[in-house]
Amino acid sequence: MRHLLTLEDWSREQIAEAIAMAREVKAHPAKYADSLRGKTLCMIFEKPSLRTRLSFETGMTQLGGHAIYYDTSRSPLGAGKESIGDTMQTMCRYVDIIMARLFKHEDLLEMAKYATVPLINALTNYSHPGQIIADLQTVEEHLGRLEGLKIAYFGDAFNNVTHSLMFACPKMGMHLVVACPEGAEYEPDPAVLASAQKFAAAAGVPLEVVHDAAEAARGADVLYTDSWMSYHIPPEQKEARVAKFSPYRVTEELLGLAKPSAVFLNCLPAIRGMEQTAGVIDGPQSVVFDEAENRMHVHKALMLLLLREAGRI
User: pTM of the prediction?
Assistant: First the structure.
């Protein structure tokens, strides 16, 4: 049974297959309108979401299937009255595929131990694989390729988006530079970095962590940032985090150091004046809403590929 838990486990070929399928279903939606008729997706939500819920639920509807929204805060699982194992073993008797948006990656791994249907990681504190596949689809659409491009990430690097970029970009032949403040709470997880460096060495591409935003931006094809105040960050930390991350704000000046053809990504939500200026996110090089749309196409592709491999369609 193949799941999508982290892109650390997926090969270059599997990532490329998902991107290709996403582009196919985006280009020919009518061709896939009945592909998942009679199939049911259970969407487990521990963390709130706009794009994840809408993209999965709309995507499943467009494929002819049905999606169930399962809020753990109103469930035996969330109340601690039922174990993850019992929940999953029961759920897999009812549905064909499951996605989970959770706080702890360890809980996702526990779910995978009991899952007898495909399981998709829709976000944990460690990994956000579907987002990064959508990001790569968006870059490929706008720049025509992935291999050989330089992608620069700015801001909070101890997070799921950065980790997933580090797993995926080297495998796709991309030069990744992560620009972040010094300190264990801001830099990538050392275990992730070590794993990603192996992928980069195997692909023969650079992977760097730097503390100078201008150095990262210079000559880049893609500039990427993410929220400084993720859901798990207490509000009282905002002032200190803004002070720490301000040198990594993506401004027009920083974007000007990249190639003229460069595109700007933010997986959203975004706050203008924090992670980026309004001039950047609302400017002509921003492709953030193409990126958001592509979440739906990637989720459709993942459901089709995983269900097909599982022999359920």
Answer: 0.97
